[in-house]
Write a structure and sequence with these properties.
GO terms for molecular function: 4 iron, 4 sulfur cluster binding; metal ion binding. By secondary structure, the protein is of the alpha/beta class. The protein contains 23 helices and ten strands. It folds into three domains: 125 residues, Fumarate Reductase Iron-sulfur Protein, Chain B, domain 2; 191 residues, NagB/RpiA/CoA transferase-like (Rossmann fold); 65 residues, no CATH class. The protein has a six-stranded parallel sheet with strand order 1-10-7-4-2-3, sandwiched between helices. The protein has a four-stranded mixed sheet with strand order 8-5-6-9. Helix 3 packs across helix 12, helix 9 packs parallel to helix 10 and helix 16 packs parallel to helix 19.
Length: 462
């Protein structure tokens, strides 16, 4: 999984630039607060929300513990129903499989349902390099694609754009947009509908992801709000679905829990307008399921980090995060922005780059994300665990070793406190050199004349 092209650097550098954009901050605040309010309303209607949340967590944890068995069950069920299953260990293999399948049809264009997995592996770019054009059909993804832009939100990829900006993009890039197009939402949606209708009717190949897979029957499930997914899933002659291996659920009964959790947490609706399910190959259509690993088994092996694989991509954590609200999704440099991206991306890609090493610090650890998560992912816990694994600068490591040495013995700490109190007037307000980054963002408290230890000893004698 590569960093978005054109977005170098690490999170601090990216976010420092983003917070200077007042229009971006306004767009994000307005959108996230609207979604947050709707979510709170529909979640508040359910007296058993806490129990549903616990059930979702338990189902996901059970599935991950027995993932090997359920994946084999899924494969057998899909192939029994006439579909074909392909296993992809990484992005390169997944891209190669999908490209070969498209080429076998003789087609040079495909339509796509919104899919985080295909963004993760850079499928559109790989197909383009092979002479195949991928057309996004989700309205927000279409806006991003036409604007030569990058998604910035899991649920609403174009959340950083307002309707005036979208109108300008349509007029400049759509080609068949009406000259008198206004920025009214209904007019923009109608222009997109007319633009996409020809694609739906003409395309012979569609590519999708899936929100869930049911191992019991080999069924794939897509939840969406616009109907473009239903068009892509039913009209083309060939359907290729690229799905992360963690999207499994054991039974249809388990799906019932998530059909309550996901819509409320994502769009603030009681249920999605379109819930599409398909099992294997339907009449007149060829179906291929590409099961994607791409680092997921490595995440599964981590006792703390594996809980990130519970994620159902609802984006509730983004909508309550104070950091995301101010910095936006592009600052994270990955298809997975926000709190979940800060723990999922470094685990999938590793902590080798400056960007990935900085993402665990893209949080205040306020815990709002954990409270909002419908499957109870303790994101702050994983962030802290990842921070411990980051290769820190030499000076910081030396400082931590020195602190550890002092704190390891009571007598050392007592001596250090007495020494600090005697030389408190000589302590600088700003540390020199690279250490200045610490004091520039923190207020150094005044060192008291007397430590608590000394006060206690004096008063205890009295």
């Amino acid at each position: 999984m590569s960093v978005f092209i054109g977005m170098p650097g690490d999170f601090p550098a990216n976010s420092a630039k983003a917070v200077q954009d007042s229009q971006l901050r306004f767009n994000l605040r307005k959108a996230t607060h609207t979604i947050r309010g709707k979510r709170a309303s529909v979640v508040g209607e359910l007296p058993d929300w806490a129990q549903l949340r616990a059930a979702g967590k338990a189902i996901k944890d059970h599935t991950l513990r027995h993932l090997d068995r359920y994946l084999v069950q899924m494969e057998e069920a899909v192939e029994k129903a006439g579909g074909r299953v392909h296993w992809a260990r990484d992005a390169d293999e997944a891209n190669r499989i999908v490209t070969d399948l498209v080429k076998q049809t003789g087609e040079s264009e495909v339509v796509k349902v919104k899919s985080m997995a295909t963004q993760e592996i850079g499928l559109n770019e790989h197909l383009a390099a092979q002479g195949i054009t991928a057309y996004e059909t989700d309205l927000a993804e279409l806006i991003v694609q036409l604007g030569d832009d990058f998604p910035s939100h899991i649920l609403v990829p174009a959340i950083h754009r307002n309707r005036s900006e979208i109108r300008e993009i349509f007029l400049a890039k759509m080609g068949d947009a009406p000259a008198d197009l206004t920025d009214e939402p209904a007019a923009l949606a109608e222009a997109a509908r007319l633009h996409l209708r020809e694609r739906f009717l003409r395309s012979k190949v569609a590519i999708s992801g899936a929100n869930f897979m049911i191992a019991e029957t080999g069924t794939c499930v897509v939840l969406e709000s616009e109907g473009n997914g239903r068009m892509c899933l039913t009209l083309p002659e060939t359907l290729i679905s690229v799905v992360g291996i963690e999207k499994l659920l054991p039974t249809w009964r388990d799906l019932e829990v998530f059909l309550q959790l996901l819509p409320r947490s994502s769009t603030g609706e009681r249920m999605n307008p379109y819930t599409s399910t398909w099992t294997g190959a339907t009449e007149g259509q060829t179906f291929h399921l590409v099961l994607l690993d791409n680092g997921r088994t490595n995440v599964l092996a981590d006792e703390v980090g594996r809980q990130a694989l519970r994620c159902i991509r609802c984006s509730a954590c983004l909508n309550v995060c104070p950091v995301y609200e101010r910095a936006g999704g592009h600052a994270y440099g990955s298809v997975y922005p926000g709190p979940i991206g800060a723990i999922l991306t470094p685990q999938l890609r590793g902590l080798g780059s400056d960007l990935d090493a900085s993402l665990p610090y893209a949080s205040t650890l306020c815990g709002a994300c954990f409270e909002a998560c419908p499957v109870a992912i303790d994101i702050p816990e994983v962030l802290v665990d990842l921070r411990a694994k980051v290769a820190h600068p030499r000076a910081e490591r030396a400082g931590m070793r020195a602190a550890g040495w002092v704190l390891a013995k009571e007598v050392r700490l007592a001596k250090a406190q007495r020494l600090a109190s005697r030389f408190r007037k000589l302590v600088p307000k700003r540390l020199p050199g690279p250490l200045s980054a610490w004091t520039d963002t923190r207020d150094l408290p005044e060192i008291p004349k007397e430590s608590f230890r000394e006060w206690w000893a004096r008063n205890e004698r009295a």
